[in-house]
Amino acid sequence: MKIYAEITSPLNPQEPARIVWPDSCWLLSDRPLYIPDFAPEFTAVTAMAGKIGRLGKCIAPRFAHRYVAQWTAALIIIPRPLCDRIIKGESPQSADLCFDNALVLGDWMPEPPQRLCINFQSPDGPEAADSVAYDSDPVFSALVNLSARNTLKMGDVIIAANPDTFRAFAVQEGASLTIGTSDDVSAATVLSTRFK
């Protein structure tokens, strides 16, 4: 199974950073995320994810919607200096982003959520809340880009972080992050994690 992501920089929207992970880097929702120790700081970037439901290669944009069977929210964990470089439009080395707990995937849904409500609780500060309207087009665009070089198989995951919708949070011990599909996050939680 492949996990593929595109992170689009507002400074270089034509050339998104492309990342590929093995499934060993994936952490499920509601599990504690142990912060890696190989960098001094990490950032959690929110994104939308789609799971592939059929085999395909060289998929035309007009057919991309046929290939995503399920949807969820995702968090991409990136060393802070590398995240700053990605936002400036640089493409990272895949090996720099391939580590245990590099991404968190939420619970799968049959339809893409129209809005994600994000609550971040810092251990030493007030709770931050944000509601973001999401569009599935960046996931479809990433799917088309990946299928030009790779055969997509059932279970592959496509993640897109778009500059209009992604939010970045400083990962710190004791913090927690919850993403829901309505303003009442407790009633419709899609993804939750706590950092240890």
Précis, in short:
With 196 residues, the protein is mainly beta. Helix content is 12%, strand content 43%.
| Structural class designation | mainly beta
Largest sheet geometry: 8 strands, mixed
Strand content: 35-45%
What is the chains' assembly state? single chain
Uncertain spans, ≥5 residues at pLDDT below 50? none
Q: What is the rounded distance between the termini? A: 28 Å
Number of helices: 3
Helical residues, percent:
10-25%
Instruction: Let me know the number of strands.
Output: 13
Q: Spell out the helices and strands N to C.
A: EEEEEEHHEEEHEEEE
**What value does the Rg take, in angstroms?**
16 Å
Overall 3D shape: globular
What is the arithmetic mean of pLDDT? 91
Describe this structure in words.
The protein has 196 residues and is mostly beta strands. Helix content is 12%, strand content 43%. The protein is built from three helices and 13 strands; from the N terminus they run ββββββααβββαββββ. The protein has helices spanning 80-87, 94-97, 137-147, and strands at 3-9, 12-21, 26-28, 31-33, 42-52, 68-79, 103-105, 115-121, 127-133, 157-161, 168-171, 176-180, 189-195. The strands form two sheets. Strands 1, 2, 3, 5, 6, 7, 10 and 11 form an eight-stranded mixed sheet that branches. Strands 4-13-12-8-9 form a five-stranded mixed sheet, with no helix packed on it. A hairpin with a 2-residue loop joins strand 1 (3-9) and strand 2. It is globular. The mean pLDDT is 91.
